[in-house]
Write a structure and sequence with these properties.
Number of domains: 2
Radius of gyration: 22 Å
Order of helices and strands: HHHHHHHHHHHHEEHHHH
Number of strands: 2
CATH architecture of the largest domain: Up-down Bundle
Structural class: mainly alpha
CATH topology of the largest domain: Growth Hormone, Chain: A
Shape: globular
Helix content: 55-70%
Largest sheet: 2 strands, antiparallel
CATH class of the largest domain: Mainly Alpha
Number of helices: 16
CATH superfamily of the largest domain: MFS general substrate transporter like domains
Length: 466
């Protein structure tokens, strides 16, 4: 049964039956369409790979520097995100900080053009990449919190799904453009740019920055009112006081709103497993299932398209059965697909050995089951955002989404640590599948403690005396 709607609508709308502002939702989704270039192009498939190459020194130096820098950025996000969100909430400047952080991310992406393939540019490259990741988290914090401004309780699932699906598709469209125009084939490539001094890869940074800026501008420049713009600025408080109030919020969640507390913990655990599907998918495909390395990017494109379809469909289903059921169903689907992958690392036949009805090769199994994994990741991520959006009062949305980011960062070690531990006993990359299964099972177990949201969280300001 769908969760009953509340009376909170976009920009102060009081009726749950009032039409949503489709133009504003479109602009919000276009921002995600553009922003996906950061993860899909810069971090995962193109520029991150460039920084990790031997052009920047021997002994995997690029990878070592980049992972260290990203770890530092992740720590900064974990420590600062909730307070940054809280201060934006209190000042009523969520949209302003989205503009500022988006501008910083665009500038950092563009600046990657100056990273030449020489060891002396390695520090510049990892600094830009890590800073880009840091400010992208801050931008997404305010972007996610805008969900409570542009839709109401009863339609939050579909809006979140549309935005998440747009992000998947936007990243893949740009990835195809830069791959076909700047990477595939012999130089000069389709866009007429050669590979001397890695110019074609460096130009990817300029194309990515322009792509994000163009698609973000409609949301950043819109004059349409949101609930955030109606916020009454709070008194000026120090950073120390912000952290004291944050601690009060966490204590208040535990005492007064245990459901939100458990959701933040459960989602942090299973989201780590969801991230691992994309993080380690290429490694699994090439090392265990016989995927040609040249086909990895094709699988990545197909996987993201499937994830987008899942996000769209999951958002529609979310509003009808509630986000908890969608998330639980996706986790069960992921666990089933991963378990099947464990059994198909060798060729299997169905039917008589001398005349089998069907032969399943590991490569075929990975394509089919790998795409099933991607199908379930999209709606699980979108419904998680919608779940928290339903729980978050507008005046607390930034702080809660900051806690959401912090909780995720605080357990981001879980799957990698399980992989390392299992490798000691298993000895090959099947440990990756096993670790993902354990993480998702743990997240599903914690989700049992969570109830479907039926109304926004009601939290008092624990920093003040009643």
């Amino acid at each position: 049964m769908a969760s009953p709607p509340d009376q909170r609508g976009p920009a102060g709308t009081t009726s749950p039956d009032a039409p949503l502002d489709k133009k504003l939702i479109t602009y919000w989704s276009l921002w995600s369409w553009g922003n996906a270039t950061v993860s899909a192009v810069m971090v995962t498939f193109v520029f991150g790979t460039y920084i990790a190459s031997d052009a920047f020194g021997p002994d995997e130096r690029g990878t070592q520097y980049l992972t260290t820098a990203n770890a530092i950025a992740g720590l900064l996000v974990a420590v600062t995100a909730p307070v940054i969100g809280q201060r934006a909430d209190r000042a009523g400047k969520r949209r302003l900080w989205l503009i500022i952080n988006t501008g910083i991310v665009v500038a950092l992406v563009a600046a990657c053009f100056f990273v030449r393939p020489e060891e002396g540019f390695l520090l510049l490259g990892v600094t830009l990449m890590a800073s880009m990741t840091l400010f992208d988290e801050f931008a997404n914090l305010n972007y996610n919190a805008m969900l409570v401004d542009i839709t109401d309780h009863s339609r939050m699932g579909r809006v979140s799904g549309i935005g998440w699906g747009a992000g998947y598709l936007g990243g893949i469209v740009l990835l195809m453009i830069v791959y076909l125009g700047l990477i595939a084939g012999d130089p000069p490539h389709v866009f007429g740019i050669g590979e001397d001094d890695a110019m074609n890869i460096r130009v990817v940074a300029l194309v990515s920055a322009a792509w994000f800026l163009v698609w973000a501008l409609p949301l950043l420049l819109t004059r349409q009112q949101t609930a955030d713009q109606d916020a009454v600025p709070d008194e000026r408080i120090s950073v120390v006081e912000s952290y004291r109030r944050l601690l009060g919020t966490i204590i208040g969640l535990w005492k007064e709103d245990r459901n939100t507390f458990w959701f933040l913990l459960a989602s942090a655990v299973y989201r780590d497993g969801l991230s691992a599907v994309f993080t380690y998918g290429a490694i699994l495909g090439t090392t265990l299932y016989g995927i040609d390395p040249a086909d990895v990017i094709i699988f990545g494109i197909a996987g993201n398209v499937v994830a987008a379809v899942g996000a769209f469909a999951g958002g529609w289903l979310d509003d009808r059965v509630g986000p908890r059921m969608v998330i639980a169903g996706c986790l069960i689907g992921l666990l089933s697909s991963a378990a099947a992958l464990l059994l198909l690392t060798e060729e299997r036949t169905i039917g008589a050995a001398e005349d089998p009805l069907l032969t399943i090769t590991p490569t075929t199994a990975f394509w089919v089951l790998g795409l099933f994994l991607c199908l379930f990741v999209g709606p699980a991520q979108a419904s998680s955002r919608g779940f928290l959006g339903r729980l978050a009062p507008p005046e607390k949305a930034g702080e809660l989404f900051g806690l959401y980011a912090t909780a995720g960062r605080s357990v981001s070690f879980l799957t990698p640590a399980l992989i390392s531990l299992m490798l000691l006993f298993i000895g090959d990359n099947m440990a990756i599948v096993g670790a993902i299964i354990v993480t998702l099972l743990l997240g599903l177990g914690l989700l049992v403690l969570v109830r479907n949201p039926t109304e926004p969280a009601k939290m008092r300001d624990w920093s003040r005396k009643s």
